[in-house]
UniProtKB/TrEMBL annotation:
One of its GO terms (molecular function) is ATP hydrolysis activity. Residues 14-236 form the ABC transporter domain. This is ABC transporter. The keyword Transmembrane helix does not apply. It comes from Adlercreutzia hattorii. The keyword Hydrolase does not apply. Pfam families: ABC_tran (PF00005). CDD domains: ABC_DR_subfamily_A (cd03230).
Length: 241
């Protein structure tokens, strides 16, 4: 008789439990708890200072929680989790003297899951010359390059902090399409942005933060179908000054 092997469900792609970050007297994130499955594109929304960047930094492992727990595919934050996470920080992270092709080489050296051919293809579609030094590129073009490199990794979880803030409106849709195209069904994306109107058509779910606390984590359809309004209008109403 065959031995009975019970099926064990895989752990969620991301779990945060009572995650808290204090900077002195400032509570940047306050007992944040979430469970995220694979295959979701999640908008991380909230007013200035609500804790979006702080949350993404802690999941990426570049800031340490004051309290609480983070697991990525069951791993605590460490080398195993970092290998699964592709993180686009809020600020540019390359030296301005580096050329685009050097940035590609840097990623190829650093990340085993980096697909250099995919990155080159995406950059060519965006019209970014590989020989250009970063210093010669506009702010929006640097953002395009960095987003492309981050998305050309075969990661499980992509953390994108304000990925299109400096990109002109005409190029935003194209960039978002590029993001979606690179996205794989077994991966999830958490995308922090103030450009709610631009991104809402691309999102499955959203998380609303205020004063470091989670107000809501719901499918976009909760707003569009349940309340008959857009996510942008819902956000503006919720956070009216
Ligand atoms: N290194 C730091 N030292 C002190 N306070 C910090 C630090 N980083 C963030 N904070 C504070 O933590 C809170 C959350 O900041 P965070 O940058 O995470 O917000 P955010 O939602 O990303 O804001 P924005 O939309 O303006 O980018 C703010 O009150 C901020 O001033």
């Amino acid at each position: 008789m065959d031995a009975f092997v019970p099926e064990v469900a895989p752990p969620p792609l991301l779990e945060c439990c009572d995650l808290t970050k204090r900077y002195g007297a400032t509570v940047a994130l306050d007992r944040f708890t979430v469970s995220l499955a694979a295959g979701r594109i999640v908008g991380l929304l909230g007013p200035n200072g609500s804790g979006k960047t702080t949350l993404l930094k802690m999941i990426a492992g570049v800031a340490h929680p004051t309290a609480g727990d983070i697991r990525v595919a069951g791993y605590e934050v460490g080398p195993e989790s970092k290998a699964l996470v592709s993180y686009l920080p809020e600020r540019p992270y390359f030296s301005r003297s580096m050329r685009v092709r050097e940035m590609i080489a840097f990623f190829a050296d650093f990340y085993e899951d980096f697909d250099a051919a995919l990155a080159r293809d995406m950059l060519a579609r965006l019209g970014v010359p590989e020989g250009a030094p970063c210093a010669a590129l506009s702010k929006g073009t640097v953002e395009k390059v960095q987003l492309t490199l981050v998305m050309a990794r075969h990661a499980a979880l992509y953390l994108l902090d304000e990925p299109i803030g400096g990109v002109d409106p005409a190029a935003r849709d194209y960039i978002l399409q590029t993001v979606i195209r690179a996205y794989r069904p077994q991966s999830s994306i958490i995308l922090s942005t103030h450009l709610v109107r631009d991104v809402e058509a691309f999102l499955d779910d959203f998380i609303l933060l205020r004063y470091g606390q989670m107000l809501l984590h719901a499918p976009v359809a909760y707003v569009t179908q349940g309340k008959g309004t857009t996510l942008d209008a819902f956000f503006r109403e919720e956070f009216r000054c």
